[in-house]
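SECTION: protein entry
WANTED: fold as tokens:
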Amino acid sequence: MALVDAEYISILVSVGSNGRVSDGGVFAANGISSYVEESLSTLEKTSLPGRNLPVPNVIVADVTVPLKPYLLKPFPYNSEGYKRTFNFRLGYIY
């Protein structure tokens, strides 16, 4: 499992987990989640380009990672309407 920034530069990489452990299990068990929570709590909210409203820093995760306040993850695969649009803009196309 790896954590990369918006420019695909590796921030954190974890290897060596058992193959049958889910991504959510790896995320919770090896310290990635605690590292992320500590790191994001120290960052200030910033505004998006062309906007004045500050927004929190978040991480885009896969569907297998448990939902947390700092994680964005796609809606289930069979979603339609605005949920499908959200998934598309998040980068998930199915």
